[in-house]
């Protein structure tokens, strides 16, 4: 259980922060940048959720919870040590990736195939989901960059990759099942 009875600690005043294993790193480290961007994505998704109802709101709530799981995963280094810890850290599981895939398939079954790229927009929810998609892609790029210097859970990278696809398809669902998608017209303003 998490207990937060004091919000400021002053321990980060010198530009460092504690990771999930207690080690301290610079606040601008690649790991902190990656999980900080996941946090940004979660906040952005919270704004999108204001425009969602029913099943979409429920699915967004699940994704927000997953993003906290992912943040916890990314902030705890040294996966090789997981089996030796008194309390194993929370890690994204393949089942979470598979759930996204199933949701994408179910949503996509309601949509006509695309015959053009679409522009971000349409409904308020769709526009916000497209912003989420782009922040998600940035979080994925930063996580992949982190893989180059430290080991991280590969399921986390897969999750972000699927999630950006989820946002794209969910944005189409939010646009009246794709009927109100804003289509790109190449060279329209030449």
SSE inventory with pairings:
Layout: E1 16-18, E2 24-26, H1 30-49, H2 54-74, H3 94-108, E3 118-119, H4 124-147, H5 154-174, E4 182-183
Antiparallel strand pairs: 1-2, 3-4
Helix pairs in contact: 1-2, 1-4, 3-5, 4-5
Nutshell version of this structure?
The chain is mostly helical and 190 residues long. The chain has helices at residues 30-49, 54-74, 94-108, 124-147, 154-174, and strands spanning 16-18, 24-26, 118-119, 182-183. The chain is built from 5 helices and 4 strands, in the order ββαααβααβ.
Give an overview of the whole structure.
The chain has 190 residues and is mainly alpha-helical. The chain has a domain at 16-79 and 123-178: Up-down Bundle (Hypothetical Protein Ta1238, Chain: A), CATH 1.20.1200.10. The protein has five helices and four strands, in the order ββαααβααβ. The strands form two sheets. It has a two-stranded antiparallel sheet with strand order 1-2. It has a two-stranded antiparallel sheet with strand order 3-4. The mean pLDDT is 92.
Question: Any descriptors?
Answer:
two-stranded antiparallel ribbon; Hypothetical Protein Ta1238, Chain: A; 53% helix; mainly alpha; 4 strands; 190 residues; elongated
